[in-house]
Design goal:
- Helix 2 (90-99) packs antiparallel against helix 4 (115-122).
- By secondary structure, the protein is α+β, with helices and mostly antiparallel strands.
- The N and C termini lie far apart (83 Å).
- It folds into two domains: 4-84, no CATH class; 88-123, no CATH class.
- The longest helix has 12 residues, at 73-84.
- The protein is built from six helices and four strands, in the order ββββαααααα.
- It is elongated.
Length: 163
């Protein structure tokens, strides 16, 4: 067996897509071969990047046709992560992990940012009045009295123009 290649199986619970292929692949098990290091005949081993050969299922229209797609390891990991987390977008996955972090929650509380505001931000939407009125929501605009108090605090100890 060739030690430069590792064979394994990727399991997808839902239909998925991979860059470089203009079709949605069905759920199921896929044989994959990962090159662990650059081939011996590679002219520039420092420029070599790991790739994965995915053996695709044959189509119903061509049952005997074997197909293989070569993708980057990152693209395969991305597709597996999306599948694992119910097909959510990576921004949603990041948001869920971020909101589960207690330190992030403390910073949100200190800054007056609500979970609803963050979800709205990551969904690409603009804040609605309902979001702004939500408990824990930061005020949208400061009143002039608030602004002058903030400026006075920021400039505390600084010489004034008359000094």
């Amino acid at each position: 067996m060739n030690e430069l290649v590792r064979k394994s199986i990727a399991v997808f619970a839902r239909p998925f897509s991979l860059p470089g292929l203009d079709e949605t692949l069905p759920a199921g098990e896929y044989d994959i071969e990962t090159e662990l290091c650059s081939p011996p005949d590679c002219l520039h081993p420092e420029a070599w990047k790991a790739s994965v050969a995915v053996r695709l299922h044959s189509r119903a229209s061509h049952p005997g046709l074997a197909r293989t797609l070569t993708v980057s390891l990152a693209d395969l990991d991305d597709a597996l992560a999306k599948d694992k987390l119910t097909g959510k977008d990576l921004a949603e996955i990041f948001l869920e992990e971020m909101l589960a972090d207690p330190m992030v929650r403390l910073v949100m509380e200190a800054d007056g940012v609500s979970e609803l505001q963050l979800r709205h931000l990551y969904s690409g939407g603009r804040a609605t009045q309902t979001d702004k009125d939500a408990p824990g929501a930061a005020p949208a605009a400061k009143l002039p009295k608030d602004i002058s108090a903030i400026q006075a605090a920021e400039n505390e100890g600084m010489p004034t123009q008359g000094e």
